[in-house]
Amino acid sequence: MISVYHDSFKVTPPDKVRIHAGMLLDDKLKEQDGEVFPETIEAGRFIVGSGEFTLDDFEQCWVSLFMWMNENHYTFRKSYPFEVYHSNFREHPEGKMHVDFCIPIH
Questions:
Q1: 26 against 106, higher pLDDT
Q2: Fewer beta carbons below 10 Å: N end or C end of the chain?
Q3: pLDDT of 38
Q4: Can you give the pLDDT at residue 28?
Q5: From CA 24, how far away is CA 4, in angstroms rounded?
Q6: Helix, strand, coil percentages for the chain (3-state, nearest 5)
Q7: pLDDT band at residue 81, thresholds of 50, 70 and 90?
Q8: Is 82 exposed, middle or buried (0-12, 13-18, 19+ CB in 10 A)?
Q9: Which residues contact 79 (CB under 8 A, 6 or more apart)?
């Protein structure tokens, strides 16, 4: 599973932030039905932060990655940050999940 962020919570009111939930597929989507549509993540360089986190950790993970990006003189590439979920927090005794936080950079 994946979440793609089309807006930033830093500059967009929470009720206006657009987030697409999706699945990573090896093959192209054959049919579209209603709100199901293909979306391609542009290839390129990314800063990736990986680990096991609770839902409460997500905001700090994003903040820390963007701070690291700025401190190390990387610049944000006009594309969409996203999260890749490798496990389900409901199946972990501490409510954690393995997540990759991905920031597109130049």
A1: 106
A2: C
A3: 84
A4: 83
A5: 11
A6: 20, 30, 50
A7: very high
A8: buried
A9: 41, 42, 44, 104
Nearest residue to 64 via CA among 52, 75, 77, 49: 49
**pLDDT in the model for residue 58:** 94
Query: What are the C-alpha distances in Å from 23 to residues 35, 73, 77, 105?
Result: 14, 32, 23, 23
Q: Which of 24, 11, 2 is nearest to 76 (CA)?
A: 11
Tokens standing for 1?
């599973």
Token digits for 38?
Answer: 């293909």
* Straight-line distance from the first to the last Cα atom of the chain, in angstroms, rounded to the nearest whole number: 25
The structure tokens 């993970």 sit at 61
What is d(CA 81, CA 6) in angstroms, rounded to the nearest whole number?
A: 8
pLDDT, one tens digit per residue, over 13-71 is 989 999 999 998 888 888 777 788 888 888 999 999 999 999 999 999 999 999 999 99
Q: Which residue has the tokens 């979440």?
A: 3
Give the Cα separation of 69 and 82 in Å (integer).
Answer: 15
What is the DSSP-derived secondary structure letter of residue 94? T
